[in-house]
Amino acid sequence: MELESLTLKNYRNYGDLTLEFSDGVNVFLGENAQGKTNLLESIYVLALARSHRTSSDKDLIQWSEKEATISGRVKRAISDTPLSLNFSNKGKKARVNHLEQSKLSQYIGQLNVILFAPEDLELVKGAPSVRRRFIDMEFGQMNPLYLYNTTQYKRILKERNAYLKRLQLKQTTDTVFLDVLSEQLVNVGAQILLARESFLKKLEQAAQPIHAEISDQRETLHLVYNSSVNFDEKDDLAGVTAAFEAALLKQRAREIMMGSTLLGPHRDDLQFIVNDNDVAVFGSQGQQRTTALAVKLAEIDLMQQETGEYPVLLLDDVLSELDANRQTHLLLAIQDKVQTFITAPSLTDVARQLIHTPKVFHVKHGEITLETEN
């Protein structure tokens, strides 16, 4: 899979821009605040219909303009597919092959991307919400059913929390509707729990050899899914559903008192264990970086296994954050395998040595110039 071209209209600091890309490594060079990250963000948004930098689509629209459009041409194994997203005060419209999609779940997965940025260190040491979002965004690209289930779960959860708040405030005493919402939440939530458990097992298998190699065989990585629902990893859907249902029933009085749903996939976490220690608590910054890098690199092969195609890799100013050893592992892992987009103030010596014929764009004040070979 590769992104052949990108067109931006009134997006961030770009009024009207069209770029053609290499199927190998594409590099955006420039100082800070010139628009490099905006370009990478636009590719991420084209893939996932949302930004990793803001929760407001209005932020994506150029100041004083009423709408913005991102479009691109995606080359896949069997076809070339035009994609486009339009953002306005009326919402967003997603099109595949020029046909508007009624649901974003039908759009996401047309272009699969993996983003690696300096803040991805938060994947290891940040809040549980960061790791839940990581699981949902990455697995959602690979599995349309999982994406649909997470969307449904959020809708039911919002409705259930609102009803629990009414019970808390004694605006109603009827718990029959709570039973209905609980059943809906359990049925969807159990599917999410099983899918996450399966996904993380596969991710661990892919990440372990990468982590061992980067650490010169000195460290062993394990991923542990800490669920607020106590179920056995050998349970089938019926078993997980029963465990979730029993746990909710046990917490009912407390949930009504708190006015909130206290357990379920929205309260779960992922733990990274290196040599039997929680790397977020006991690991050095180097170990945390190695863990984040190994997991990100593992995603590349896992996504290829699950979808049949390699994703597009986005590296937002990460080379300067990695030492020479980690840079080497990263660049060798992607070489001649994955279409890659890199932002950086300048290319490091390691990158210059390892990247074969990159296509280099210079970015200055939102203007793009293509570096020509001497």
Describe the structure.
With 374 residues, the protein is α/β, with parallel strands linked by helices. The protein has a domain at 1-112 and 309-374: Rossmann fold (3-Layer(aba) Sandwich), CATH 3.40.50. The protein is 44% helix and 23% strand. The chain is built from 12 helices and 15 strands. It has helices at residues 36-48, 104-107, 122-125, 128-142, 144-168, 176-214, 237-250, 252-258, 279-282, 285-307, 324-334, 349-354, and strands at residues 2-11, 14-20, 25-29, 67-75, 80-88, 91-96, 99-100, 113-116, 221-226, 269-274, 277-278, 312-316, 340-344, 359-364, 367-370. The strands form 3 sheets. A 6-stranded antiparallel sheet has the order 2-1-4-5-6-7, covered by helices on one side. A 6-stranded mixed sheet has the order 8-12-13-3-14-15, with helices on both faces. The protein has a 3-stranded antiparallel sheet with strand order 9-10-11. β10 and β11 form a beta hairpin. The chain is globular, with a radius of gyration of 22 Å.
Short overview:
The RecF protein is involved in DNA metabolism; it is required for DNA replication and normal SOS inducibility. RecF binds preferentially to single-stranded, linear DNA. It also seems to bind ATP. One of its GO terms (molecular function) is ATP binding. This protein has 374 residues and is of the alpha/beta class.
